[in-house]
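Lay summary. Proteins are chains of building blocks that fold into shapes, and those shapes determine what they do. In this project we predict the shape from the chain. Here is one chain we studied, written as its sequence of building blocks.
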Amino acid sequence: MIERDIQNELQACCHEYPVVTITGPRQAGKTTLARTTFAHHKYVSFEQPMNREYFHEDPLGFLNRYASGAVFDEVQHVPDLLSYLQQEVDERPTPGRFILTGSQNFALSARISQSLAGRTCVLELLPFSITELQRGHYLSKQLNETLWQGSYPPVHDRTLRPQRWYSSYMATYIDRDIRQLTAVHDLDTFHRFMRLIAGNVGQLLNSSRLAGDCGVDHKTIRRWLNILQASYIACLLPPYYNNLRKRIVKTPKIYFYDTGLICSLLGISDPHQLETHPLRGAIFENWIFSELTKKTTSSGENIPLYFWRTHGGQEVDFLFENKGIITGIEVKSGMTARPSMARPLLNTLHQWENMETKASVVFGGNSGFSANGCDYVPWTHIASLIG
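And here is the predicted shape, written in a compact code that computers can read:
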């Protein structure tokens, strides 16, 4: 197994909390991480009906069997387990005793908050980051191929065809998860909704237009967006606020957690199609978003990511504040970086007169440099932006 970036944080949490919960999208590697890291723990998968039946018939007897500790996999199938674990760990709060994994959904999130507040550390495991792909020698030298392949582990460690795998993933996701989370009666319309979202990555969310294009009401769009967020398929990026006397756009932007899924939804069946695809720049921007998100979630630093955009036209693709420094990031998908690319970014950051700022341009080339107060970072070094 490739060492995951989150393992140091996972080990630290296991010395602090009696229960550690690993959530994230399906097929991100949660089970592999838990079973490898805690090989000495007994393992129980609630995907198996027999284990679910055993728990429901005799919850206390079930827990007594695993009193020394266990990895409980896919716990979203048995949400009542969390209430019984509360009493168990209150009586014996041994750190690292129970490891839970589950694909995040509304019920699981609510039960964790109600039953295990203060007793568990919740970690999010996303698909492979660029550093993990490099560690496993899976990272392609070609940017287009990297965008098209996406980052889900099965595509890389099982060398599966991306187009086929993502198509199957979506079918399974809808059949198994969407129908469990909420009532989606018209799957064709939901498919159209997802394709529309994929075609608008990096854009301001326009719920009214989405509702009109899908032929549904605003409440349905909001519910479907909540489903995508709860299932780690898509994310809404909020705008950054500060005390500048300007009218800041308050509408969030929409991004996916994985570009391979975007390419599948857009019908991009070959990486060479990206060379001239009109959404290549947006897909690359989405890839930068997902890599920055993976870096912050795996480190445990909880550094919120934002964008900046005013009605007057000033814009910063990504912005975050860490240790008193505001970092602004401009994204360019071309292989050639020029100092002129940073001028709008530098002009915007100069407005934060009383704070230290840092400017970076991330581009699709291979050789980085610094000039005029800005770092020009090649896509292969994106992880260096958040230290």
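What the prediction tells us: The longest helix spans residues 162-181.
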